[in-house]
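REQUEST FORM: STRUCTURE PREDICTION
Request ID: SP-0412
Submitted by: Lab K.M.
Chain count: 1
Length (residues): 88
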Amino acid sequence: MAVRIRLRREGRKKLPMYRIVVADKEAPRDGRFIATIGSYRPKEENNLLTLDVEKAREWVSKGAVPSDTVAALFKKAAKDGQPAIAIT
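STATUS: Completed
RESULT:
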């Protein structure tokens, strides 16, 4: 089973909120997921990003591949003072 770390859209029209989830590669965007490791609110002041770095590291070490957008969010989190997540 190929596992990805990606965004799951929530919220209402024109006010999105995303959860950073670990899901099977074949699952639909807003469908079944394995675990939630954070959230992202792009419309909030300062683009509010919360991330459980330890869970993210654990899933990456198990072989989960982050999507391009989530990889960029990981880099942003590292810039904002949270420890970096090594993506291989």
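NOTES: DSSP finds two helices and five strands in the chain.
Reviewed by: T.R.
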